[in-house]
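Hi C.,

You asked whether I'd gotten around to modeling the 129-residue construct. I have! Everything is below, sequence then structure, no commentary in between.
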Amino acid sequence: MMATDRKRIARTFKSRGLTIQSTALDALLNVLSRETHDETLFAIIDEIKDRLITGGGPGGNVVTTSLLEEVVAELSRDAKDVTDEAVQLLDAFQTPRLEFDATRKQFSLLDNASEKRSLYGKATDKVGL
């Protein structure tokens, strides 16, 4: 069964204009043993073709183990991974300073990058209250 799967997958890649390395084929068989074969295989092949078209790369049409690992990792991301990537901590002292102009009703970027920031206002800020 394993040999027929190897031949079928290699033929599928070849019919799509790709050549798969034997180590990448072994890794792909490992992935496909845990998933539904055809749907997953075609999704992986489509993503590989997209990456090879956009990336160009020196490998041409050869599917390597590293490329296959990247594609499988990308396709197997779940909602928790996306949420973890979306949450970032930003340092308030490193972000650009903005000032709101009430007459224009828009924000403008302040050029005081060299000025040291403080959590507390200046004396003039207290008078302005």
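If it helps when you're writing up: The chain is about 55% helix and 10% strand.

Thanks,
B.
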